Each structure stands twice: as structure tokens, then as C-alpha cells.
Amino acid sequence: MFEPVTKPRVFGLPPGADFPKVLVAGLVERHKTLPPEALARVTLVVNTRRMARRIRALFDAGPARLLPKIQLLTDLGKGPETADIPAAVSPLQRRLELTQLVSGLLDREPDLAPRAALYDLADSLASLMDEMQGEGVPPEAIAKLDVGDQSGHWARSLQFLQIVQTFFGPSDHALDAEARQRLVVERLAKVWAATPPAAPVILAGSTGSRGTTLALMQAVAQLPQGALILPGFDFEMPVSGWHDLSNAMTAEDHPQFRFRRLMDRLGLERGDIGLWHPASSPPLSQSQSQSQSQSQSQSQSQSQSQSQSAFLSISPARNKIVSLALRPAPVTDCWLSEGPQLGNIMQAFDAVTLVEATSQRDEAMAIALRLRQAAENGQTAALVTSDRVLSRQVTAALDRWSILPDDSAGTPLHLTPPGRFLRHVAALFQGETSAASLLELLKHPLCHSAQGRNTHLLLTRDLELYLRRYGPAFPEKHDLLRWAGKHSNPAAIGWVDWIDSTLLGQAQTDDIALSLWVTTHMDLASRIAAGPQIDPDQSDAAKTEAAQPYFGQGTGGLWERKAGQKAREVVAELSEHSSLGGCLSAGDYGGLFTAVLSRGEVRDRDAPHPNILIWGTLEARVQGADLLILAGLNEGSWPEMPAPDPWLNRTLRDQAGLLLPERRVGLSAHDFQQAIAAPEVWLTRSTRSDDAETVPSRWLNRLLNLLSGLPNQKGPETIKSLQRRGAHWLAMAAQLDASVPVPAALRPAPQPPISSRPKQLSVTEIKRLIRDPYAVYAKHVLRLRPLDSLEKRPDPLLRGIVIHDILETFCRVVQADPSHLNTRSMLDISTDKLLRDVPWAATRALWYARIARTADWFVSGEADRLALAQPVDFEVKASAVLADLGFTLTAKSDRIDLAADGRAYIYDYKTGLPPSPSEQRYFDKQLLLEAAMAENGDFEGLGPALVAEAVYLGLGSKPVTVAAPLQDESPTQVWEAFRALIKAYQDPTQGYTARRAMQSDKTPGDYDQLARFGEWDVTVAAKAQVVKP
Fold it and tell me: Is the pTM of this model over 0.85?
């Protein structure tokens, strides 16, 4: 296939080439005159499965011919030459071993790192170990580093790094994947050097960014019939530019640096790199073209035209501009000399669009619109980004047109329904089951998925409403049985029994073995997924799967479909290696299980649209499409920021021979240079993130700076043209969410029929009737009430209930035995009540401290109050009927004391700030109305009594006593004003105005959304609305 040469055989394809398509075209071209079986002897080594599938698809498109042998880089170790090399251990096995070693080190020296970082440290050490094995760096090289003045930090790091040394010693069975791959490459290089393969071996699509791959590339290039085909090789960069890439410390982040290093290893110069497609010659830079003859025959012109079609209309002019823009920073002065020699810039960028959106959402919508058009036109379009948030936003936007893109990254397993379900089940072991976590599992689509799910969903809905209204925060079986006993469905009792056996009381406080954790976890997950109707012992499938019963058929839909099957594989692997995990707490097991799941991904190649793709940068490097969208072109995404290395800084990595952090930046630069040369390109970014302005990607910034400095070549006009095309799509995207202007709602004041108006209110609701009548209308006429939060929190309402209970209990105890009138007794009662009614330890401590601050004040005041009168009762109910108006007023006084002379004292406890006398006169009339009701004899067990005093006892941060202004308004005046208020709302023309007299514009109301508050404010006059019955 190849003619003999004296130098290693290396080819390249320029940026923008559809790599698989041109690769196949070159193979076919070189075998035109060879026997058909010659192509079948070729071994083609590629680096991704997607690329291998694409190559097979191109051959399958015809005409009929024998296929070459297509292998992945990771498949090279499966041949007879490497049969004696032990198989690599599972990455999970190695991480579990590292976790145990790190855990032991932290147990011995807890000051080295927090235990919460256990799994992150193990992962980081595993990554470092993989890199050391891939680059051929032994632990001895790390130990000999010159640390200078970093000895303190280095001493701590070295204790962790010594853990890695355990896995570098001589071993016949404990090889990691990277270590085995390096041994395979070394073995193949040795075998090939002795007996080179007679058939061609072609390694295509690799850049040599990792040490093992670079060694393999060197071995293949040295073969008599070996060849390398490099993706995105910059034929436009002059020789002087290649010389500027010799220093890794200054050029590591250049897109062509890896090729420069490969050329140095092979003893090659730029001119030794040939263009893979045989029917064309490499595009030449101006310095090279001046030394070549300008005359070409007509046949050569036709041949070159044909070859250019194979490159999908690559723009050499655009490649030359991008090549110049990306020169190493120390030599960007070449812009001044080479920039004016560039050709027509505008024509080179006529197929490029620049989208600069104001937000990531607008960016995603514009991208989705363009992808939709590509789908309609039959174009192949690929979104290339490392920003997973952006890619998910684009996927969501495409869903409105029922387009599902083919995402090469798939969906992380821990975010799939089975992954989320298993994580929720694991959380049950970590503490009491809250109402929120209980409903979270009951409403999951995999819960109770075997049979009878309709009944399950109905019961779940009713239970949710009950828990929202009545709680408690952490329900127990007796709470659920109380609900089930009142439910109309007889299956509710059995359903609660199933909940109790699976979802309640699963907390584990002891450390147990990982193997037991996995078994317990999967057994519980299977029972929750199956529901109460399934008995695994009665299933034939269960009997045949006794070894792992939690994978049986009696588990509903847990292990079904691709996500369930993948979850099953991951759990099986974890179970296989669980003996290495040691003993873990419930929290540690939950963290480990989530970390294991997050490394898996789920892809369905059949469901997505075949022409709408989402690629990572690796896939884009060796693939081609009609349209490439380079999205998220901001610093932090293009390039991604290198992850901080907790072990070795940049200088130490360079000393050890490890990869510099800029390697990833250089690869990202290469991906940018490769992608921007596509037939049609979109460059997109958002100018703002959630909370700040963004910084454009350094490569986009360089390109725009270069163009803006070339006015003679219409560089600034080109930028405006790019932006104009992008603005067109942003404008169309804005129309997607454009809404027809709707007049703002007016301030409502509904006038329901008299028969529908409330016939009974409590004294506390009179304040609401005065301040926000619309809230009374919504609650009592429309019979709406706010949906209580499922996540019960220690809110002011609960605090008020608990404090009232504490004070009532204390006063009853003192009434029975006056010797308990002391602070100690009050605090003891507080402790008991808080332990019973407040399930949050931190809240108990906080509320106890607040009670302790006010206890002396309350006890001292209680002595004074008892000297005036004795309590008659607590939580005293009252009811007053206005017969002529058909209205009833109800009340419940916290406490009423009665003096020897028959006068009454009314007390109301306030955990917040009590209303001032002025507020009580005009708005908060609770105590004034209770005083009037007391004098009218409306309280149960208490006849008419003159009210001597009605007092609020404020128990806030500053305890205070606020008396009702009885001296300013007599009970008789208060009652007449109350009658007038109720009578006014008996008028059919009186509306229930929204937010009539709120304490502040910022005071929230329960029904503000219903009243559409915000579309109007308090300056807007209310609009009466007659409500028909």
C-alpha cells in the first residue's frame, strides 16, 4: 500500500476536514489498483467507538468492498502478542482500595484532611496514579522532587502520595487500565521492531496528548507499512511558527504543540508531513508558495477540484486567518507582518455566524432554532460544547418541536429515574424519614411499579394533602394509621403497613460492611419498587434468581429499559468488589454510592434524531458535520479551567515529567481550530452569566482582535457581518417567547351575593377583614386556603403553638402548687415540651435559649398577675351572635383571670411584637372585642364581668407588656363599631377590596397571586366586580 520511505510516515488532514469521510476516501484511492483483498489486510486503529461506527457506515454506503480491520486503541491488548499480560483491574475496585487506604490514613492522622473529603481524595489519587502510569513516571520520581520552600505542604501531600506507591511494585495481577495499556504498547513496539507486520497499520485521529498514545504513535510510524493520520494539522502555519512551539512551558496551550512534540520525537520537520488524500497537495502558506512553480496543468486543476469536494468545502483562507490568530503569545507580533498579506477576509467568513446573547437562555434558544432548521433541511448539525448546563437547555428547547438530539455524553446515571430512586432509598439509612422524603419516594415513577399503581397514586395524593395540613415533620406509623383509619379506601391500612416496613425506621447508626450495605440497600429498593402486592417467594423468577433476588422480576420497573439495565450493571459491579470497601457509616455509603453511579452514563442510540447531534470536544475532533455550533465560547468553558491539583503544582509536574495543566487548554485550542474550519460555523456565547458579565474565550477574543486590526482587508466589516447574522437569529428566538400584551389587572373588589358571604368569623380574622378583605373573600366565599408546605420547618406558627403550650402548662402547675413559681420549673417544662414537639435539635437549642432569656421576666410578672387575680381557665372559648345580622363572632382567649371583686383580666401571649395601642384602636381589635364579649357574658363558664385590663404579653427578643386601650374605647363603643363593620359587608354593593389597608406594601398576603397583586398597586382604585351565585 505504501512505497518504501526513509523517514516515519505521517500524514495530516487540515482543520475542518470531515475526518472519517476523508480517511475512507484516501484508503479507497490508495487501493484502486490493488487487489480487493488488500484493503481487508489493513489494520485501522481509531480512538472512539463513534468514529469506528462512522467509518463502517461510510463503507456500508457502497460500493461493495472488503472492509479493513477496524480496532480501538483499547483493543490492541487483545491479540496473541499480549495474551500473557494480566487483565486490568476494575477502576471501581482500585478506587475502593484507595478509599480504604486513605480512610486508614485519616484515622491515624485526622488533622491531614477532613473526613468529608475521603472520596474526593481517593478519586484525585486515582487520577494521579493513572497519569503517572500513562506517562511512565515512577513514584521514585515524585519522591525526589525539589520542593524548595514548600516543605510543610509537601510533607502532608507526601503521606497521601505514598499510598499510590503500593500499586507500582512488581505484580502479576494487579494492573490498572493505564498501566496495562502502557505494557501493551511497550510489548507491541518490541514485537514490531523484531518482526514488523507485513500488512499496513494506520493509527488515525490521535493527537498524542497522552504518553502511552504518543509511544504507540511512535511505534506505528516506525513500521515499514505503518502510518499516522493527524486530525486538524495546520498546513497554513509557516516553518518559523512551528519553530516557536519547541518550549512546552510557553507553547503547551497552542493547538499544534502536540504535533510539534511528535515531530521532534520522530525527527521530522513540517515539510515531512503529507496530506492524506493522494489526489491533492497540502495548501501552502505564502512563504512556501513563492518557492513553487505557478503553472499547473488542466488535469491537475480538475484533480484538485475533486479532492476539495472530499474536504467538504474547507476554506484555506479561513484556516490561514485562524492559524495566524492562534500563534503563541510571545510571537503575536507576526500579526503586524503577516496580517496585511491575508486575502479577502469577508469572503473567508461568509459561512460564519457570531451569536452574542445577553443570557445563556437566549443563547440556547437561538441554537435550538438553528438546529430545528437543520433538521427540516436535512442537514447534519452538531452542537459542540463542554458546558453541560447549556447543552441541557438546548435539549429542553428542542423538545417543543419533538426533536431529541443525539447527545454523545448521554445522561449521567445518577440523574436517570433508577439512579435518583436508588439514591433516595440510600438516604433512608441516614436519618429519620421526613414527610418530604417520604412523599418524594412514594411519588417516584418506579415506586410501587409492579401492579396496583393507580390505587397507590390515589392514596399518595390523599396522604400528601393530610401531611401538608396536619404534619408531622417526621411521620411515624401511628400518624399514618390515624389518617388511614379515616380513609374510605379499605386498602389504606395495608398500604400504611407496607410504608412502615419499607420507608420508615430505616435509619442506621452503626458502621457496617459495604457488602452488607449493598445487599440491604438493594433488597429495600426492590421491595419499595415492587409494592405491597408482590411476594417474591411466589415468583418462579425469584426462585431462579436466588443468588441476587433484588434483580428478579418482582421489582417493578426498577431494572428495566436502558437506564435500569445500566444501573443493574453498576450495582452488580459494586457488589462484586464490595469486600474491598470495609465498614462505612450510612452517610459514607450514600456518598460512595452516588459517586459510583455518577461515573455511569446512559445513551439510547435509537431514539434521538439522526442528524441533530451534541458532541463533546473529543468527538468533534474526528467527526464532521454540515453545521458546527461552537457554543459557550466564554472563559471557563472554552477552555475549561484546569481542575486544581491538590498534590503537585505546575513546576513540580514539569520536574516529574507529568502533563502540565495547559495540556487541556491546548487540546481545547486544537478543537477550536478544527471546528471553526467547518463548512458552516456558529460561534455563540452569552455576555452575562447569572450574576456577572462573562469574558469571551481567549481564542474568540484573539480572532476578533486580529480582524479588528485589519481595516484594509475589511476586518471590522467582517465582524459586523458576523454579528448581524447572529442578531437575526436572536431576534427570531425572542419572538418565540413574545406574548400578546394584556392589560394589567385592576385591583379586585368582588361583590358576592349576601347568601355567600361569611356568617361567622373569629376575632383574629376581623383584623384581616379590615386590612385585606379580599383574603376573607378568598377563604370563606371561594373556600380556598394556601397549600401548606410539605417540608415542615420550625416557623413562627409552630413556635407560637409551642410557647403557648409551655406557658399554659406552667401556669396550671403553679396554680396547683404555688411553690413551682420559679424559673427552674418553667425551664424544666420547656425542656419537656421542646423534646416532644420540636424534632430539630438545633431549633430546640435556639428556642430554649430564647425562653431562658425571658423566663425571669415572665415568672416575676406572673407573681404580680397572681396577686391581682386567679386564672379561671386557659384557652377559653367565646361566641357572640348578632341575630339581626345573622352573624356569629367567635374567640378563644389564651387566659382569663378573675379577681375577688369580680373584675376580669384578659391575657394574650405574643411570641412576636405585640400591636401598639394605636394599631389596636384601628386594625387589630382582638383584645378590645374579647373585652366586649367578656362584659356581655359570651365566654364559656364565665358570666358578664367588668374587664379591668386586657394585656398582650410579648415574649420576643425584648419582652414587653402592651395593654389594650380600654380607656380610649369602651367595650360598648367597640361593639357598636364592630356591628357597623359587619353591617357594611351585608350591603350587596360593598366589595371585598384587595389589600385595603396593609401594614406595609411589602407585607405579603396569602392570596396576593389570586388577586394578581403586582399588576396593580395600592394607588389603583378598586374595581367592583359583582359575583354571581
Answer: no
